[in-house]
Amino acid sequence: MHIHGVRETNRALFAMLDDATSADEAVLAFQIYMRTVFELDLPGERDAAGRKRYRANYLRLLRGWGFDANGREGAVLKGWAESRFGLHPTFHRRQLGRYPSEAWMQYVEEKMNARFHNNCIHAQLDLLYEYAQHVFRRWLYPGRRHLTLYRGVNDFAEHQVVVWLPRADGRPGRAREAIARQNNLVSFTTRRDIADQFGDTILEVEVPLCKVVYCNDLMPGPVLRGEGEMLVLGGDYRVRMATL
After folding, report:
1. Domain coordinates in residue numbering, the chain
2. What is the pTM of this model?
3. Mean pLDDT by 10 residues, the chain (244 residues)
């Protein structure tokens, strides 16, 4: 799965990624390209009153998500997933429900905040996604098509059950399966012991690698706060639920 036109209009980056002989070289190539094209190292310009203008940066959005997925940065990221993949969000601060509503208006206002749209932020996120897919396929998960990921929850406000599924053996038990609608962008973890810390019900899903947007292994130093955290495109998933 690719975002249309990203590779064709950024051939220099993907040539460098193809030439990289290690994941570390690929990371360096991506960082240099992003800093150069989007001038991420330059200080922000100042307005007529002398106030420093915020320069939108994909790393700041990711750090904001790690701090609060329902903050303004989270709204911009959900807006990008909505724009590029046609996945409508189901939750931002509260259930979005039917459109229009007060909850929807707040989400739309936050995702369109001019503070985050002054430096081609969607183009930055497009490149991040394509870079991540390249590194996943070549370096981090070669030959893999799916990853088993986990999320701990205490309620299903953000994880709407579409339909419950019968157990494969036909017997009752604590583990159940369902088709659950995930928010259009959602965090999971590769470690079940970490998921246990965030809720009494553990969701286990098989996520296609092409739906993983970001993880900390793609950059030096932690950007997302959660250990083993992966930022994943949502939608309807077959979910196995286990109650602690």
Report:
1. 6-140, 146-243
2. 0.92
3. 96 97 96 95 56 80 95 97 96 93 96 92 98 97 97 88 79 75 96 92 97 95 88 97 84
